[in-house]
Write a structure and sequence with these properties.
By secondary structure, the chain is an all-beta fold. It has 2 domains: 147 residues, 6 Propeller (Neuraminidase), CATH 2.120.10; 77 residues. Helices cover 0% and strands 43% of the residues. A hairpin with a 4-residue loop joins strand 8 and strand 9. The protein is globular and about 60 Å long.
Length: 242
């Protein structure tokens, strides 16, 4: 659904993805294929990496798949994809989880090229489920969440993972003169300048390019933003971007 309440429907078949689509996920920073978009085909049990571009309006445009990996029979009916935070206990190598609706399980694979699973590394995480669907790593706690459809109709949480890494874990003063912390967070986000700054403006945009808030700089070295904001990138007047 677009902001003007219209919608665009494009078949992924023309880009090499077998129907029907079961899940999608963006590959996190630090993983092979970081920034890429991964789809799963529920019917075929195949994972795809599909290149994309994004306009300022927020609309995504896809290109033909660049790689694919079959996850059958271990993850039949893949309906959820999540990347396990690096450094988590029991996962020495970068890994991803897939909710297998067909098998009633959640399985783990190590991550290979293009952010796709390595089939030979599969292992079971959760078994005995009915209709395993969905997959999400909480950006604040690192908890893994998934749901079951049909018999149980539950949302299940698994804790014990590391918190996802943030691009702002280290101060950015060497490049842009400021750091943002803690990010992500459930509370307030603070913008900390190396030196007090005045006469400027901090604008916050959502992922669709729409301005959601603006705050004037008033010769302070630290500024506080409302809770619920998580920074995924930034751009300063000098042209430095992340």
């Amino acid at each position: 659904m677009l902001p003007d309440n219209t919608y665009i429907s494009n078949s992924l078949t023309e880009f090499g993805v077998t129907p029907s689509v079961g899940a999608l996920a963006f590959v996190p920073a630090g993983y092979p294929g970081a920034g890429g978009l991964v789809f799963s085909s529920y019917n075929a049990g195949i994972m795809y990496n599909v290149p994309y571009t994004r306009e300022a309006s927020g609309q995504y445009f896809f290109s033909t798949k660049v790689a694919e990996v079959s996850v059958l029979p271990d993850a039949a009916g893949p309906e959820g994809i999540a990347y396990i935070p690096a450094g988590s206990a029991a996962f020495p190598n970068l890994s991803m989880v897939i909710s297998s609706y067909g098998n009633g399980t959640v399985v783990v694979f190590e991550v290979g090229e293009y952010g796709l699973p390595v089939p030979s590394t599969v292992r079971q995480m959760v078994t005995g489920l009915t209709g395993a669907e969905g997959a999400l790593i909480d950006p604040v706690t690192g908890d893994f969440l998934f749901s079951t459809f049909g018999g149980d109709n539950k949302v299940i949480r698994i804790s014990g993972f590391e918190k996802p890494a943030s691009v702002f874990d280290s101060p950015a003063e060497n490049h842009a003169g400021f750091s943002i912390f803690p990010n992500p967070t459930e509370g307030f986000v603070k913008l900390d300048f190396v030196k007090p700054v005045s006469g400027g403006m901090v604008s916050v945009f959502n992922t669709y390019g729409a301005k959601v808030m603006e705050q004037e700089l008033s010769n302070e070295s630290q500024y506080e933003f409302d809770s619920g904001i998580s920074f995924t990138g930034w751009n300063v007047s000098s042209g430095y971007r992340n």
